[in-house]
Write a structure and sequence with these properties.
Layout: H1 9-22, E1 29-35, E2 45-50, E3 55-61, H2 75-84, H3 98-148
Parallel strand pairs: 1-3
Antiparallel strand pairs: 2-3
Helix pairs in contact: 1-2, 2-3
């Protein structure tokens, strides 16, 4: 199952910078790119951090190579998951161990929550902007109506210009 979230490497890098800011990872230099699944060892993404130089290289599977019928393709969420690893770059338990599964589950839950919160704020912000815009238009319409009838009474007897 794939959502239509298509972007290029430039857009992914822009998202990376935005999320570094949100996640307080400003001191890291991270390069994020899309890659094919054969470049990733049985994963949807991989981050290779150098904690001493605070640089990292993040590979995210491309939409064409994403093969999951249950979870929709979401490169932003995948990226945020990988960036969360940078808060504990030396904490990498051996793949397949209980500690590894617990860490990955924790990071997955946190990254999904962060992306969902961010998206809900964006949607709320858009709805709020639309509502304010409608209110501004209604106010301008009222001002225009009053200016047309400023010296005489409105024959409509409307509430807009209070000329009943």
């Amino acid at each position: 199952m794939t959502l239509c979230i298509l972007m290029n490497n430039e857009q992914l890098q822009k998202l990376c910078i935005e999320w570094q800011e949100r996640l307080n990872l400003r001191d890291w230099r991270v390069k994020a790119v899309f890659c094919s699944d054969y470049e990733l060892d049985d994963a949807y993404a991989q981050i290779q951090p150098d904690p001493y130089q605070k640089i990292a290289f993040c590979k995210v599977v491309s939409a064409e190579d994403y093969e999951n019928e249950v979870i929709p393709y979401d490169p932003e969420q995948i990226l945020v998951h990988e960036l969360c690893h940078l808060h504990a770059p030396n904490l990498m338990p051996e793949h397949g161990t209980q500690e590894f599964l617990e860490l990955e589950t924790l990071i997955e839950q946190v990254s999904q929550s962060l992306v969902n919160i961010h998206r809900s704020k964006q949607n709320y912000s858009k709805e709020d902007k639309i509502e304010r815009h409608v209110e501004e238009l209604e106010a301008k319409e009222g001002q225009l109506h009053r200016s047309v009838h400023k010296d005489s009474q409105c024959d409509k007897g409307c509430e807009t210009c209070r000329c009943k």
